[in-house]
Amino acid sequence: MAFFKRKVQFNDDLGFGSVPVIKNQRVLNTDGTPNIERTGLPWFKFDDTYTRLVTMSWTRFFLVILTAYLIVNTIFAVAYNIIGIENLDGAKGTTLRDQFFDAFFFSAQTISTVGYGHISPQGFITSVLAAFESMLGLLAFALATGLLYGRFSRPTSKVSFSKKMVVAPYQNHTGLMCRLVNLRKNSLIDVEAQMYMTFNETVDGKLKRSFYPLQLERSKISMLSLNWTLVHPINEDSPIFEKSLAELTLAEVEIFVILTAFDDTFAQTIHTRTSYQDEDIEWNARFKIMHYHNEAGKMVMDYSLFDRTEKVVIG
After folding, report:
1. What is the pLDDT of residue 151?
2. Distances (CA, A) of 109 to 70, 89, 129, 140, 302
């Protein structure tokens, strides 16, 4: 038995498959990433290294760079000690530990081409190793610089979605609403939003996951300068018309919001998305107004009110 009515039949797979989800399992995480655990792939793929380094968190990125830096210098320090610490003129270490650190810090100075001068290579083999390390250092720092540029120049979205959706009065019926705002001071142009609902339903005796587009009151605006409340009118044409919270919960309803906009700072198109589950929907509530005019007549946005709601009576 289907919980939600359909006016037409169509291929409604958004790329997540038709396997039904179990209780409290999201199809899409709140940050917009698919809630999928991938197995069977190799642990390391060389052709995917750049993507991983550019998209990983800043903390993990700096840990990777620091770890690689320490490993490379350790390898060269061991190599200098194998050749003979006496071939590093100025190295004064007498114990193995001190000799290792003399070679380690000489390696750090060589790979960065600093060369303080109190330790210098002696002999052909040591000089060749130091020259090779200097060349490797130039390539490594050029690569690190490119990665930093790639991370800073990559267009990213700072659009924030409200933590909850609300069901509030809208025209002669009610509306399913969420709110979004741009946390940056720049402008987003040609902003377009899409909303989809996914739920478990029984088709031909089999439980499957279905997807259904939710029509919006307005799906596109020319510029996002204030906040924007997306409204899906819950009228006779809505698949959730006259549906209760219990029915939504039973069907494991999840709602996707997908946003596309042109960022005038990066001069590129950005994409962002989020999802809401049935427990994220607050009934008989509406968002508080978060912008007002001050005494000088200037529009003010109060971001502390972004997720604030207030109860309303739906008659």
Report:
1. 86
2. 13, 14, 14, 14, 51
pLDDT at 43: 67
How far is it, in rounded angstroms, from Cα 95 to Cα 78?
A: 14
| pLDDT tens digit sequence for 172-190 | 888 999 999 988 888 889 9
Indicate the DSSP class of residue 288. Answer: P
Give every CB contact of residue 255 below 8 A, 6+ residues apart in sequence. 165, 176, 195, 196, 197, 198, 214, 275, 276, 277
State pLDDT tens for residues 116-173. 878 889 989 999 999 999 999 999 999 999 999 888 877 777 889 999 999 988 888 8
- Exposure string of 100-120, with b = 16+ CB inside 10 Å and e = fewer, is bebbbbbbbbbbbeeeeeebb
Burial class of residue 93 in the structure, from the number of CB atoms within 10 Å of its CB (0-12 exposed, 13-18 middle, 19+ buried): middle
State the helix-helix crossing angle for 124-153 and 96-111, rounded to 10 degrees: 60
Q: Please calculate the CA angle 223-238-261 and round it to the nearest 5 degrees.
A: 20
Q: Identify residue 213 by its one-letter amino acid code.
A: P
CB atoms within 10 A of CB 218: 10
Residue 94 region by backbone torsions, left for phi larger than 0, else alpha for psi between -120 and 50, else beta = alpha
| pLDDT of the residue at 274 | 92
**Stretches in the chain below the pLDDT threshold 50:** 1, 7-11
Bridge partners of 23, per DSSP, are: none
3-state helix, strand, coil in the chain (%, to 5): 30, 30, 40
Token duo for residue 222: 């020319």
pTM, 2 dp: 0.71
Residue pair 238/232 in contact by the 8 Å Cβ criterion: yes
* Burial class of 205 by CB neighbour count within 10 A (0 to 12, 13 to 18, 19+): exposed
| Model pLDDT, residue 69 | 94
Q: How far is CA 144 from the centre of its chain?
A: 22
